Each structure stands twice: as structure tokens, then as C-alpha cells.
Amino acid sequence: MATIGVVGAGIAGLVCAQALQQYGHQVVVYEKSRGVGGRMATRRLASTCADHGVRYLEPEGEALRYLLGVLHDHHVVRAWRGAIAQMLSDGSCHFLAPSRRYIAREGVNAVAKWLAVGLDIRRQHRVTAIAPVAKQGWQITFEDEQPDTWADALVLAIPAPQAVDLLTPLTPLGLPLPVLDAVRAVEFSPCISAIATYSHEQGEFLDYSQAWHGIQFDTHPDLAWISFETSKRPSLIPDKATPPVFVFQSTAAFADQYQNAQDLQPAGMILVQQAAQALYDWLDQPVDLYVHRWRYAFAQRPYPGPYIATQTPLPLLCSGDWCGGQQVGGAIASGLQAATYFQQKLGDTPAALSFHELVQALCDRSSAESA
Length: 371
Fold this sequence. Notes:
20 strands, 6-stranded mixed β-sheet, 7-stranded mixed β-sheet, 26% strand, 9 helices, alpha/beta
């Protein structure tokens, strides 16, 4: 049995950690944030919540389709019949063909929380350095004077540019340059998300059956997506009505202008002003506005394989949705195959765990804990 450190509690990191744990390894996950899930992010509001990273889930790929089916049966997600429109350059809209989409009453982050159950996750542990030490393994260093820790092997389940920061100092210590070059070659585009809440009076004419529930913009210079979040779920507080909540997401070109901005509120206001011009004039008068920057939102130039691995100077592997470039489905595949790689290198048996078997094991554990 090996001790394996997983840096990053996004979907790839969680799946990898769960599979390694099923193989019998001792696994610790280190996450720089307070929560888990990465872009599977949900912001809690007064009486509801809003998904400001991944917009919704579609059953793309066999593994994600199976997971969503299981989570639907366990009432973690539900089908969403939201109408998605496409805004054309002339200001007209047409509706996209209906497809199977899933959301969660508690927000899309509920999926990540389900995958995190039973793991040893050290939140607010930002890894600042890793170093190989003979006969001891990987030394993992954190910020804020948290004590160093050790692992026999490492999984860097973080965006490629963040992995580069940790890998670059290792080249004089034996890390093969082709490994570093492969991670460096991955390119991301950024995104800014603005969550806006409105008064009941402002949106009194809106209801859950309005013509659209999400709009994607293909040619707008600033806006890429608007969602009427209130259409996804009722109030999380019984007998309390939910005010209108919208999420606005930017284009990469717009977000590029704010890569180093300390204050993102001006960027959020521009997005709601643009939305007001395209839709309802009161959208530029939110009651509250929360703005988040995703520096590594989408892999524009992903790595073609499911992971990048090396045994030199010690066992190390890079994983994430940027390996294969299929977002949530790609993250699942990357995490599972990364665990299989380490099991073959470090485990007693080379048997590969299927994703169906892993999900069933999580279901069995959930049932046992709730009994």
C-alpha cells in the first residue's frame, strides 16, 4: 500500500482519490479552497443558490451518463427542461434542439460533494512546492506555515499552468523535460461570472414558464451566456419566495482584460449592462452582484491523452479535464485512468477498477452510512 497525495479536489482529483482508496492505498487530497469541485461551483444566496461555473450537466460520454443516472436515482440531480436559446448577431433568437440536461436542487456542486464523501480532504491547503527526498518520497510544502507532509507518489489534479509552477523547479532534480513541455503546451481561456439578484418588483412578470431559461451568445464581444437561475430550483427555504437570480458569463476576450484586476465589480457591472441592452432594461440595476474570475475555465489546447506521468525523480502524474479536453466527462476519465496507472505501478495487483464499480462502491458506502 502506498501513500499518495492528490493536489486538487476538482472532479478529476476526487475520482482519482476515490479509485486509489478503493485499491487500498492511503490517499490524502490537498485543496487550496474551502470547498471541492473546482468549476462545479455553486454560490449560496439568501433563499436559493446559483451555479456560476459549470452551467448544467449533459450525459456526454458513457461514464458521465452512468453517474448522472445513479445520482438521479439518489435524488442528487434531476432532469432540467430549461429552454436554451441562441442569440444571433442581429439580435434575434432561435431555440436549440431539446436535449437531456441535469441540474441539482442544492446546486451543481452537490455532485462534487457526493464524490468527496469518505475522502481525507485537507481544505485550505495551498501547495507551494514539491521536492523529492531520497528514501522519504515527495515532500509537500504549503503556504501559511502549515507543516510539510510526505507522499510516496503525487497526483497534480490542477490546471496545467498551476502544475507548471510546481514542476519547473524539478527539472534540475531529474524531471524529464518532455513532461514539463507537455504540460506547458496546454492553453486555457478565462471567463468571468457575475451572479446578480433582483427584487421581486423588478422581475414580477417573470415566471418559471417564460420562453427561455438560458441564452448563449456566439458573436457578442462580451457576453457568452446568461441563465435565469431561478428557473432551476424553488426556494431552499420553505415558505420563502425566491427573488430573480441571473448568472452572466463572459467571453474569453472580455475576461482577458481583467486577468490582473484586483476589483472585479466593474467587470460584473459591464456584463449586466450589456445584458440590459440585449434583454430587459432593469438587469443593470441588481440588488446584489457577486463576481468571480475563472482563470482556467476552458482548455483551448488540451493534452491529447488522459494523463501525463513520470517515474522520475519519483512517481508523479498530472491529471484534469484538460487531459482530453471533454470537461466533466474528460475529468472523470482522466481521474480514473490516473488511478489505474498508479495501481499498476505501485499496487499488488494490476486489476483495473471500472467506473461502474467505483460508483457502486460509493453507493454502497452511502447506504451503509445512512443505515
